[in-house]
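Quick start: read one record
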Amino acid sequence: MLRLLSIVLLAFTWFNAAFAQEKVDLRVLAWPGYADADMVADFEKRYKVKVKVSYITSDDEMWLRMGHKNGENYDVFAVNTAELQRYIDAKLARPLNPQAIGNIAKQLPRFATLEEIPGVTRDGLVYAIPYTYSEMGLIYNKNYFEQPPTSWKIMWDPQYQGKVLAYNGSAHNYSLAGMVQGLDNPFQQSNQQFNKSTELLLALRRNALTFYSSPEEASEFYNQESVALVFANYGAQQLKQLQDAGADISYVIPQEGALAWLDCWALSSGVKNKDLAHKWIDFTLEPWVSQLLTERQGLANTIVQDNRSVAEDKIIWLEEVEDHQLRSEFWENILSGKTLQMMSLP
């Protein structure tokens, strides 16, 4: 009996060791919908490699994951141009070689000159290749509104208490609060402006049903609860998901404008196979792959012109914020129920 038990334990140990040593050739960190299983399978088949995709649902989560072991856990990651700056500063991202990505030539004219896209290059080196983009508008339930809402302030309206879905992310929420204040630059807030934004977010916490992390989670809450308004952090991707589920909704860019992100592929400082990482980026820019992103997620891609009519003058492209860590710490305090008096600026 002991001999049999020893054999079983030995086999179990061997199985676990073999599983732990499973060979992975490329490690991708991305947002939901950016690397679907069938797309990944096609890449693996073409290059005879094994790809492991990990998903994140917030900028804060990505920062924590990338910071663990100094970026050694991933080879390529999808990040917006504003967030990318702190990865470069922390030496968690490394320059890539545009010459190794032939499909750049197929991108739309607005993406043709990388040097002219804010946040993509630094000191003459290219750190990112644009992949997808969207503005973060306001989704509203047409059962509650005869006319589209005109201002973001509607999310604070007491008559919609418990009927507002907001996003669980520190940087974007503080920038949104800055927009509601009417700041010229919601990304760089003074101490006084930051305190006012904190007050606004505390009030939003009291008015909101909850704060979602992913488009799927937002859809689940929408379907289960009586929701009037959704801050669409994922933009057109969320709009499509809810419409596909039959929600009677519409989408608007309020008078203050809408934050907008440009997500790019970047190389981690811990990249192990730079050639394969470049092949991955090139693969995602093939027209049929980029078109999948639009067909399935509703997001604009950098290959085919976006036909939606969104006024450019209402788009506020994300910029680097004054203090990522401070925004993150204060946001966690807001979520935990602390009051402004319990929080203080350094």
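The chain has a mean pLDDT of 90.
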